[in-house]
């Protein structure tokens, strides 16, 4: 499986704290069928002020450690970028970390706050699309405003967004309401792929294998392969996995 959302890089956000944590998370993911992992630390202005260069620096340390351990895991990096006006300057300066490409557009994980869909998000989304950037909304199922009003996710789809469900949400790790919303989105074929959003080995571990089994049992093998393998492979067709 190809996991396009993880917080496995050490000491850079609220994910792995140490390089040893990162290695243990990598081993755990491999054991659960992950062969490729996109490292996507937060860029959350005034909280996690990561940049393309600072992420790259930690990424290459991680890459070296994975090679030393002989782990069968291919890595690349992007970022999970919180909605903010500063994103525009990153696009213009070509310093926004993308996770891949689809239909000629560079793909960015565009994170909404968990509490709401902020005013002006539509303006930013329209600008990104007009400038050849494809917004992918991670974990929409955990956004409180979307939980309260399903029309919000349909509105985001109409604006041109793609969606990534979290594996743990699919199998109920975030509670029944979030699992039900995940199921409704799956019923409506809204997610483009499922990813782990792995942060640690405790409450935010890698649930990709359990989620794959669930989707396969409920929606069939073809649909599971699309969400966990084929569609992520499409996005990363030109990514230099290392």
From TrEMBL:
<dbReference type="GO" id="GO:0004725">
    <property type="term" value="F:protein tyrosine phosphatase activity"/>
</dbReference>
<dbReference type="GO" id="GO:0030145">
    <property type="term" value="F:manganese ion binding"/>
</dbReference>
<comment type="similarity">
    <text>Belongs to the metallo-dependent hydrolases superfamily. CpsB/CapC family.</text>
</comment>
<protein>
    <recommendedName>
        <fullName>protein-tyrosine-phosphatase</fullName>
        <ecNumber>3.1.3.48</ecNumber>
    </recommendedName>
</protein>
<keyword id="KW-0378">Hydrolase</keyword>
<dbReference type="InterPro" id="IPR016667">
    <property type="entry name" value="Caps_polysacc_synth_CpsB/CapC"/>
</dbReference>
<dbReference type="Pfam" id="PF19567">
    <property type="entry name" value="CpsB_CapC"/>
</dbReference>
<dbReference type="InterPro" id="IPR016195">
    <property type="entry name" value="Pol/histidinol_Pase-like"/>
</dbReference>
